[in-house]
Design goal:
Layout (H helix, E strand, L loop, with lengths): L1 E2 L5 E5 L4 E6 L4 E6 L7 E6 L5 E6 L3 E6 L4 E6 L5 E6 L23 E5 L3 E5 L8 E4 L3 E7 L5 E9 L5 E9 L4 E7 L3
Antiparallel strand pairs: 1-2, 2-3, 3-4, 5-6, 6-7, 7-8, 9-10, 10-11, 11-12, 13-14, 14-15, 15-16
């Protein structure tokens, strides 16, 4: 599930390929079933301007769908399962006046894509065939961009030889440059 960056729409995806887009008031805009050919939908995000939805699959593919639910593009990004997709743009802030809302230009943002093997790809756009690849050496990672979209936090853990683990948060620039690491104590 993912909210559009302006906070007006949500997309809900199911592993079986069913995709549903609706409004914050509960109105259904469109729904469809995506045939992913033996792969499951594993991640979803909106383009910054909310014109398209990008789906990630367990086969490492990206699928682009327009505002009517039509598949408009798709390609293989990796052989690894895609676990999360996030654009580096501001999110909707409740109470913000409408006149302060900025227009989104999709090329101004970076798309971060996490893979099951702990890699994070930094794409200049969803069609980037040469993304910057970073091996976080973490498992079960979750990511989030800072509010201005300049820093990506990647959280996860490393399993040690004695089956204990270390929780960590790694911070990267929009270009995939490592900034610093924080270890989180086990609880």
């Amino acid at each position: 599930m993912a909210w559009s960056h302006d906070g007006r729409m949500t997309v809900i995806c199911y592993e079986d390929g069913f995709v549903l887009v609706g409004s914050v008031t509960g109105q259904r805009y469109w729904s469809t079933v995506v045939n992913t050919a033996q792969a499951k939908i594993s991640a979803v995000t909106w383009m910054p301007d909310a014109s398209h939805v990008i789906l990630g699959t367990t086969a490492g593919n990206l699928i682009l769908m327009d505002h009517h639910g039509n598949t408009t593009d798709g390609f293989s990004l990796s052989t690894q399962s895609i676990t999360q997709l996030l654009y580096s743009c501001n999110r909707f802030y409740p109470g913000a006046p409408d006149n302060s809302a900025s227009k989104f230009v999709n090329d101004d943002y970076v798309l971060a894509c996490s893979l099951e093997n702990g890699q994070v790809l930094f794409l200049n756009n969803y069609q980037d065939q040469s993304p910057i690849s970073v091996d976080t050496e973490l498992q079960n990672i979750k990511m989030d961009w800072s509010s201005p979209g300049e820093i990506l936090a990647v959280g996860g853990h490393t399993i040690l030889h004695d089956s204990s683990y270390i929780n960590q948060i790694l911070f990267y620039t929009r270009r995939g440059e490592f900034l610093y690491r924080i270890q989180i104590p086990q609880t």
